[in-house]
Amino acid sequence: MKSLFRIIERPDMVARLPLEQLRTFVHVAHLMSFRKAAEKLNLSVGALSQRIASLEEYLGGPLFIRHPQGIELLPSGKELLHKVAVPLELIEEAVAKKSSKYTLCIHTASSFAYHWLIPNLGEFRDRHPDINVEVSTGVRLVDITSGGIFADLAIRYGKGSYPNLHSIEILRPSLNLVASPEVLNTPDDPCINELLRTLPLLSSRDREEWDIWFDRFTVNNKDASWGMVLDDDMAVISAVVGKQGLGSVRDIYAKDLAAKGKLAILSEYKNPDKAFYLVGRQDRLERRDARTFLNWLKSKFDPVVGK
To answer: In degrees to the nearest 10, what's the CA dihedral of 71, 77, 82, 83?
Structure first.
């Protein structure tokens, strides 16, 4: 198979590098699916397959094993992915600099995106018109180790430890135990111990969080009645407002509805072990657009603790 590095050393061949095919290959290799990559690139599966076939012909050998269960990267494919993912990103960054416009792709949970980030992005855009922020959402973590293939940076809620990535704490929210005011027999002085034992507990996938409330109000978790498992805090809040049980959510999502009387905050737990972090490769976080975005986040949250 041809060596891309030997090709790049020859200026007469650089112009003929199949950059579009290489970009397509990186998407397929990360997603391990022709169909998903085609959707990501707004291509038909047939057109995407042609690009991969063209790249394999150019390099003189196959990059994937295709079988009924899916695809698998050959050693040649793994080597190519390792060598081209970051250079492709640098090319895209150079083009962005030439056009005097940055595009910063941020991935985060839908709760954080729709409740806080997107409503506030207008302010960021007014202050920094040269930086275009694109937001993608989802429960599952996307690959940001390539620094731009799927997202440049992510805002993640957790303990801040992610392999091969650097994290900077931007917000450490309190936990709120919440209920609909309509399910409380004595709204002014609810018996939380009884509520934890009698109402369904709505979980956003992290049931360990409920141990905080069990310990605080002396409830045996075996006495609890578990309700639905939902994707994120806003889904939990929707179910709580719909009188379907108790929820444990971050305060940034609960306080506005509580102020409107649609949600009752039964108890608050300050400084839990988890926080919101801006996460990415160290070198990607050091670029101007990322530093500008981080400084804006810091200006919006107080206090901010760096990691």
So the answer is: -140
Residue 198 makes CB contacts below 8 A (sequence gap 6+) with 225
Judge whether 232 and 204 are in contact, CB under 8 Å: yes
Kindly provide the b/e burial profile for residues 210-244, where b requires at least 16 CB atoms within 10 angstroms of the residue's own CB: bebbbeebebeeeebeebeebebbbbbbebbbeeb
**E-strand spans in 53-152?**
64-67, 70-73, 102-108, 131-137
Closest CA to 168 of 159, 160, 176, 180: 160
- Cα-based distances in Å from 64 to 12, 57, 248: 29, 13, 45
CA distance linking residue 219 with residue 194, whole number of Å: 9
Pairing of strands 70-73, 64-67: antiparallel
pTM of full prediction above 0.85 = no
- pLDDT tens-digit readout, 12-43: 444 467 888 898 999 899 889 998 888 877 67
Render pLDDT for 144-201 as a digit per residue (tens, 0 to 9): 665 555 688 999 998 988 888 889 999 999 999 999 999 886 666 678 999 999 999 9
53: how many CB neighbours lie within 10 A of its CB?
13
Q: Letter for the amino acid at 3?
A: S
